[in-house]
C-alpha cells in the first residue's frame, strides 16, 4: 500500500530543495525554513554530507518534515529512510526504481517529465508526481495540458522555478506545490544569513494564501 504523498504538497506551497555540503548548517537551516512557514524540506543525496544532514534535521527539528531527494537507485531507499527521511523524491523513475519506491514505507514523489512517464507512474499507483526539470520540459503550459487527460494526478514541478515563476504553476489545479532551491541562496548559506532565508521562506509561503 503506497503512502499518500498529497498531504506533503498541501502543507506549504513550496518545498525547498537543499544541497548541503556541510551538515553543521542543517539544523539552523531547517529551523530558518520552518520559521518562515516551509516545514517540508527536501535534502538532495548529492553530497557526502546529505545523510548526516537528514539525520540531524530529523532528530533536532521535529517540526520539519525532512525528505531525501535525488533518489536514483533502489539502494538509496533504505539508506535514506534509515537516516530519517520522511519522504523520498526521485528526479526520474526507471521501472526498477518505480517498483522499489512502490513498496516504500514513506510517501514518494517519483519524478517524470513526459506524459508517458506520468502514465507509467500512475499505473504503479502513484498519484503525486514530481515534474522535473519543470522549466526546460514545458513548464506550467505542459502541466496545464495534462489536467484534461490525466485528472487523477497532482504534480510538484521542480527545476528552474523561482519566486517569479512559481505563481503560474501554483495557479493550476493539478499542482500541489512547487520545489526549488531559490529560498536558500548559496551566499546566504555561506555567510550564515539564516534571517534572510527565513524572509525568503516567508515570501514563498505567502505565494498561496
Ligand atoms: O537532484 C535532484 O533530484 C533534484 O531534485 C534536482 C532539483 O530538483 C533541482 O536541482 C532544483 O532545481 P532548482 O530549483 O532549479 O535549483
UniProtKB/TrEMBL annotation:
Gene source species: Phreatobacter oligotrophus
The EC number(s) this enzyme carries: 4.1.2.14
PROSITE patterns in the record: ALDOLASE_KDPG_KHG_1 (PS00159), ALDOLASE_KDPG_KHG_2 (PS00160)
Subunit and partners: Homotrimer.
GO molecular function, one term: 2-dehydro-3-deoxy-phosphogluconate aldolase activity
Catalytic activity, as annotated: 2-dehydro-3-deoxy-6-phospho-D-gluconate = D-glyceraldehyde 3-phosphate + pyruvate
Pathway(s) served: Carbohydrate acid metabolism; 2-dehydro-3-deoxy-D-gluconate degradation; D-glyceraldehyde 3-phosphate and pyruvate from 2-dehydro-3-deoxy-D-gluconate: step 2/2
Enzyme class: lyase
Annotated protein name in UniProt: 2-dehydro-3-deoxy-phosphogluconate aldolase
Alphabetized UniProt keyword annotations: Carbohydrate metabolism, Lyase, Schiff base
Family the entry assigns: Belongs to the KHG/KDPG aldolase family.
Keyword hit for Transferase: no
UniProt xrefs under InterPro entries: Aldlse_KDPG_KHG (IPR000887), Aldolase_TIM (IPR013785), KDPG/KHG_AS_1 (IPR031337), KDPG/KHG_AS_2 (IPR031338)
Amino acid at each position: 500500500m503506497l503512502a499518500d504523498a498529497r498531504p506533503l504538497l498541501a502543507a506549504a506551497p513550496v518545498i525547498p530543495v537543499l544541497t548541503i555540503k556541510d551538515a553543521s548548517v542543517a539544523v539552523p537551516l531547517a529551523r530558518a525554513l520552518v520559521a518562515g512557514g516551509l516545514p517540508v524540506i527536501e535534502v538532495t543525496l548529492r553530497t557526502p554530507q546529505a545523510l548526516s544532514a537528514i539525520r540531524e534535521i530529523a532528530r533536532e527539528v521535529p517540526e520539519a518534515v525532512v525528505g531525501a531527494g535525488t533518489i536514483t537507485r533502489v539502494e538509496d531507499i533504505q539508506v535514506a529512510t534509515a537516516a530519517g527521511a520522511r519522504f523520498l523524491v526521485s528526479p526520474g523513475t526507471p521501472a526498477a526504481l518505480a517498483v522499489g519506491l512502490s513498496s516504500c514505507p514513506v510517501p514518494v514523489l517519483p519524478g517524470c517529465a513526459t506524459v508517458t512517464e506520468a502514465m507509467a507512474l500512475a499505473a504503479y499507483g502513484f498519484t503525486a508526481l514530481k515534474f522535473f526539470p519543470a522549466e526546460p520540459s514545458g513548464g506550467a503550459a505542459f502541466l496545464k495540458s495534462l489536467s484534461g487527460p490525466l485528472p487523477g494526478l497532482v504534480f510538484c514541478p521542480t527545476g528552474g522555478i523561482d519566486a517569479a515563476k512559481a505563481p503560474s504553476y501554483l495557479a493550476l489545479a493539478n499542482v500541489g506545490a512547487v520545489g526549488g532551491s531559490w529560498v536558500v541562496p548559496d551566499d546566504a548559506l555561506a555567510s550564515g544569513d539564516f534571517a534572510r532565508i527565513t524572509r525568503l521562506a516567508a515570501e514563498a509561503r505567502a505565494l498561496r494564501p
